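Example A, followed by Example B.
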Amino acid sequence: MGDIVRCALISLSRKRLRTALTVGSITIGVMLVVIVTMISNAGKKVVNAELESLGLSGLSICTNSTLNSGGQMGITPESLEVIRNTKSVVTAMPLIVQFAGSLLKDTQSDTLICGIDAGAVQAISLTLKYGRMISRGDVRAVDYVCVVDETLAKQAYGRENITGKTINLQVFGVEYEFEIIGVAKAGSSLLQNLGEIIPGMVYVPYSTLQTLTGRTNFDQIAVRVSSSADIVETESQIIRRLERLTGYKDYFRADNLSLQRDRLGGLLDIVSLVLTVISGISLVVSGLGIMTIMLVSVNERMREIGIKKSIGATSKRIMLEFLTEAVVISLIGSIAGLLIGGTISFIGISIFGITVPIRLSDIALLIGFSLLIGAVFGVYPALKASGLRPVDALRME
């Protein structure tokens, strides 16, 4: 086999420019596949991070309608304790939402007030940039403190860190002054791009918002589960326990946010696969180029083939030589394409601060597919060369 490889390399080195151009076509094909794949993986990672920042990684428990007895709509504190005591529940944070007006410095804007408990970082993936988060002490003391998102801070002060400032929140026509104890990262850059459609977010202790609105129940409960494999079972347990507690059927609803995120992830996988297949078509075109060049090589080397056969070379030997040439071209092109495409993708993705893990299995699969292309499209020229009769081959000039 070593002699066959050596002969193939010698034959390729005779027509270096033609060999280089053929290798270049494979290089471009592999490079496109690598770039598209890495960009697709980076895009999926960014989207998943955005969904995580929106809290789409657990369960959301809420109600469908008001109680038949005329009670308040929402989840009671007793129901919250039942949820917290459910197996596999890591955190269960009550949420109360209230639209309000706000005045920060000289900037008035519509604001969404979110009443939260301590531990919001774990429950709804809230990212704190400056200051501190709402604490259990703030909740127990019903303090008038808040965390604002960076969007409000930039609008009013032109900077992000405004801890220690105050903001006036207008609830049901009455203004209340809150001290800003922290600044959180806006929930998603996607939301920030919507501009005025999405109001600024202000996070306050849920007990404080209950006092301002006169509400005792919660709008929803954000639940984090210990393992994603337990989400479906935990969801069923929570609903059953809440129905036993209240005696009402079909009153509570659990939204499996992780399932929705996974479905979107599956859709992204399909899009990534389609893009990869489209870019892979260029590899097939490169394979046609290999076939064309190998057919030209067969016509140019007929006398050489005739001489080899005359001195004892078998048809199998001739076929393997030409087939090896096609595979070597594919191997060199695929390695070059991996290096160039990987470097370009790594530099481009790094500019945006994204890291994408490189799996050896993906590299091996791509190289294997490239070699398969070379072998498949090199079969016909190899068979044509091996099928020549010595007399006919020697007759050719």
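Example B, a separate protein, is given below in the same form.
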Amino acid sequence: MKILNSDPASKTADVIVIGGGIHGCSAALHLIKRGVSVTVLEKDYVGCHASGVNAGGVRRLGREYVEVPLAQASYEYWRDIKSLVDDDCGYRVSRYLKVARSDEDMAKARQRVNDLNARGFTHEDVVDQETLRAYLPAIAPHCVGALHVDGDGSALPFQTTQAFKRRGEKLGVNFREETPVIDIKRHASNWHVETHKGTFEALTVINAAGAWGGVLAAKLGDDVPLQAHAPMLAITARMPAFATNAVIGALSGALSFKQFENGTVLIGGGVRGRALPDSNRTVLDMKGMSQFLSTACDVFPIMKRANIMRTWAGIEGYTPDNLPVISSGRAEGIVHAFGFSAHGFQLAPGVGEFVADLATGVAPRLSLDAFNVSRFQQIDRASSYI
């Protein structure tokens, strides 16, 4: 790839990344490390939306089977994240557990481990009730075991996304915040991206626009039935330490749960509020939020004494199959990386590598066929779009 201009003040680059979430920042970092000039256009500020306000789970546990290789590749980056971004990202290695509250849950857990083992993956195992209680003495008596990974953990989302930005910036990535894209067109061999701060030009454009990625993809000839939702979270006042050594979910019921070292507890679990992407706003669904709060109390009875201090939601893009789009587009010089459906945080270091491959014509070391944008070509055009 020929470098057009590596001047940070320039409006030309080899690659323009649209979207300053963690995946856009990761792709930019991997590209600049290869000597490719990069401009990142972010309509708000880096980490403003889902990337900066999610639960921060760094998990391989419970992934869709086609996602497991990607999660494993990212896990290798997370093990030494400081060498990649010069920041520890608040990364804590711990246990990750999905608690079983019935014999049916345990049967599902055993079947999953068997399926993973048959595919050559051995990172997940099943723990019995005695072992679960040894890990988490405060667990409710009716919890009979768990699906388990030793070595997954969590990180601080906003700190992590900013770390990717700072490292990329230090190496020469040109970040332009508060620079929404107005239009994008191809002239000769280059893409021209129009903003109210001028027109930027590049050989290649990466669509990492998150919940807004479907709108941009449609402009580029790739229709994706992406929906915007608002995954919700709540955090408590400080509590006695009872679950600081693990991140906990549930095999049935909505739950994402971790206790910080200061005693506060972060609770989520896939329950969504209403997203209003045109105005950058979210509306919380308090009835829906009660679902994961109820599950938290059922798994940890001590949570009945918890005081909720704050609730919030990010804006995230969801595909119909809840798998991301990571692929070249129909048009030459277009790469997509969006639609992570509220489980993309852990994947970001590896996704950045593979998106950089696609942008520079290198064959990725893993198959990305399951994430190709072409899988939506037969989707009914009447589907809802953001």
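On Example B: The chain has two domains: 12-52+158-224+320-376, 93-152+228-318.
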